[in-house]
Amino acid sequence: MRRAKLEWTKRIALTLSAVLVTLSSAGRSRAGELERELRKPSELSWGGDLQGGAPYVFEDETQPGKIRGFEVDIAEALARRLGLEARFAQNDWSNLVPALERGDFDIALNGLEDTRERRERILLSEPYFVYGETLAVRKGAPASSLEALSGRRVATLNQTFAHDFLKTRGVEIVLYEGQQEPYADLAQGRVDAVLLDHVIADVYGCPLPEVRCLPEDVARGTYVIGIAKGRAALKRAIDDALAAMRRDGELERVLRTWKLWDERQLTLASTSSVASATSSPSPLPSTAPGSAARPPLETPSQRGFDAVQLALFLQGAGATIAISLGAFALALPFGLLLAVARAFGGTALRVAATAYIELFRGTPVLLQLYVLYFGLAPIVKFDAWQAAVLGLGLNYAAYEAEVHRGALMALPRGQSEAARALGLTRLQTLRHVLVPQAFTNALPAVTNDFIALLKDSSLVSVITVVELTKRMTISAVDLRDWLVPGVACAALYLAMSLPLARLSRHLERRLAHDSHPRLA
Amino acid sequence: MIRIRGLRKSFGGRFVLDGVDAEVREGAVVALLGPSGSGKSTLLRCLNGLERFDHGSVEIAGLSLTATPATSDELTRLRSAVGMVFQEFHLFPHLDVLDNVTLAPRVVRKADRAVAERKARDLLEVLGLAERVHARTFELSGGQKQRVALARALVQGVEVLLLDEPTSALDPALKGEVRDLLRRVRSGEVGERGAKPLTLLIATHELDLARDLADEVWTMREGRIERRGAPA
Questions:
Q1: Residues in chain A within 8 Å Cβ distance of B165
Q2: Shortest CB distance from A514 goes to which of B48, B84, B138?
Q3: Rg of the Cα trace of chain A?
């Protein structure tokens, strides 16, 4: 359900940001050297999602911080040929295109399929890989073609060619964000089939004992590199380098290293025309012998949750704490100002504060993060951490405002009268008498809100920040295990929130003691 | 000299003060008697600007109040000269006794903290609270709260002190103590001695208090002063 909501808000935000980005790029100069089109003159930064895992791009378990994958090799080869240094930029896969458009990296290189929608939105390079769409069903199930699955539940990833493809096939589509989960659900019987690229199927689906992969490709398509509109020189340079890699055999060598070279790739040699002639992949006739030999792929060794993982988790927890503290440091004072404005301000101030509070409380924080990070990018370009802290801070300010306003309104009228009778102005009364008392009274609620913020901070992974929950999902896909990383992640959240919950109870008790000393 | 002329004040269409005319000479002690709802508290609150009134005028501590709202500056000056002690004291629970007493000198008069604290300590000592300067207000007894509220008002060197039911929140045993205390306040033995003798207006139900302390007793009824005279 949460995912459905997430999708919905994401779509609004992405549409909004697409409009803004298109508006801004219209005036951008199309001319210029390759260097001028790069973020840094000596660097080729490429965006991908580690959560996509092997064999695309994944963390080397033995050397934390080092990444591996066939796309890593391709990116490095491209950079080398262009005389540049390759630099990886972690980004949520589903947001690669908007992040590319806002200029977070030079190219998007992460299993990006050549689809009409993408072609309309960004520049796409010549292909570097041909994939087949593999249909996986449960072992023992009778279905042996997509047609036979009419009306059944078929899983795939959001924003993929397979998703578009399924839309016209009369099946019930079930969308996922990660590539391991659809196969897990297939094994569990939650869905009837999975349609995904053969690279994903070969690693995450076909090896499962409960799963059978149909030998024939349902459709074929190509992976291409995404380049922001208007960067013609960069696109030319990438295409030239790719063509050279095809000619001198480096591309084949890379794909062979990763055991990805198969007969599908033979069409790559002549793909330039194929890919550019048809802007999206076409389904193969189901009778076509499109079956490819399925060489065993290199998969990460079956390592468990170890010290390296733990260190990464602690790092993630550190990010969670940093974001939460930063956001709360903004939310508390701003919320207090809003509360005072709403409770004691003039009409204009009161209306403005009320509007702010209703807007930020009444819309999903996820939407706010998207708008802040992607939507506003053409106007103000916050980096991911700034947007995370600002987004959560602005959102929580609305909640803190109501907590403080409640505490202010709950103070006995006599307090402000006594202060006024002593000659304090309204402002002095607020500052010296009302706000300090309201703040103390609100502390238990404020502490609870901070605990909620700790957990809500996991939402910032959608704007590329790797905090504790994102770290957990990356590890879970790497380790093919959601249980141990999940428990470790939960343990770390509890280690952060339980002491705070205790503090909150302690503050509550002290408060009760102070205001009702005779009961204590 | 306090001069009250034709004072009228309504709440929701009902006149709580319905034409009050009175004068108080400097240094006098006036007790306001009368049943609940007769307008005693409202009259006191009008005298230091906590309530606006609809008609009439008040001259107090050299300032003139009318139905037109006073400016913030005027109110600050008024309140520096006219102190108020509330029936429920309304001490500030987030501050200790000393900070309760020094808040106004420090914030309103911008007095140096050390100077303000020395004055406050002297006053609290006279009031028998020397040992309690760092107590939180919820730790105090009713009588102690009363004395802190008094110190908080007196430390500013006010010319007029308004007391709203000073004994009603206290045990009967303490009432005599308050009478003695107010007598000492009146004589100038307690409190910052201003340029002018302190004028006291006390709204009370206690006939004893009025008889012992007051130079003049006003009996209020339905928003008017029904009778003015010497204590019976």
A1: none
A2: B138
A3: 27
Q: Which domains does chain B have, with CATH numbers?
A: 2-229 (3.40.50.300)
* Disruptive mutation site among B51, B94, B103 for chain A (greatest number of A CBs within 10 Å): B94
A266 pLDDT higher than 50: yes
Judging contacts by C-beta atoms under 8 Å, the chain A residues touching residue B72 are 425-426
- Tens of pLDDT, residues A435-486: 999 999 999 999 999 999 999 999 998 877 889 998 898 788 777 778 999 9
Q: Please, what is the Cα angle at A429 between A424 and A431, to 5 degrees?
A: 125
**Distance to chain B for A437, nearest Cα, Å:** 6
Res B157 pLDDT > 70: yes
CATH value of A131-213 in 3.40.50.150, 3.40.190.10, 3.90.1200.10, 3.40.50.2000: 3.40.190.10
Distance of residue B208 Cα from the nearest chain A Cα, in angstroms: 27
The answer to whether residue A436 neighbours chain B at the CB level (below 8 Å) is yes
Q: Please judge whether B139 and A437 are an interchain contact, meaning their C-beta atoms are less than 8 angstroms apart.
A: no
The domains of chain A are located at 31-127+224-261, 131-213, 307-515
CB–CB of A440 and B88 under 8 A? no
The two counts, helices (H) then strands (E), for chain A are: 20, 13
Which CATH number describes the domain made up of A307-515? 1.10.3720.10
Average pLDDT of the residues of chain B: 91
Subunit contact B93:A515, Cβ cutoff 8 A: yes
Contacts of A424 in chain B (CB under 8 A): 103-104, 107-108
Do the first three CATH levels of A31-127+224-261 and A131-213 match, i.e. the same topology? yes
- Lowest average pLDDT, out of A84-93, A175-184, A311-320, A343-352, goes to A175-184
What is the C-alpha separation between A324 and A335, in angstroms, rounded?
15
β-pairing, B14-24 vs A211-213, is: unpaired
- Residue A276 in contact with partner chain B when CB distance is under 8 A: no
CA A52 to chain centre: 11
Q: What are phi and psi of A193, to 5 degrees?
A: -160, 165
Q: Topology of domain A31-127+224-261, per CATH? A: D-Maltodextrin-Binding Protein; domain 2 (3.40.190)
Summarised one tens digit per residue, pLDDT across range A52-99 is: 888 999 988 788 778 999 999 999 999 999 999 999 999 988 889 888
Output the 3-class SS for A382-419.
Answer: CCHHHHHHHHHHHHHHHHHHHHHHHHHHHCCHHHHHHH
- ipTM at complex level: 0.93
Question: A370-421 pLDDT, tens per residue?
Answer: 899 878 877 887 888 999 999 999 999 999 999 999 999 999 999 999 999 9
User: Do A335 and A399 form a contact (C-beta atoms < 8 A)?
Assistant: yes
Chain segment A277-291, per-residue pLDDT in tens:
334 444 444 333 333
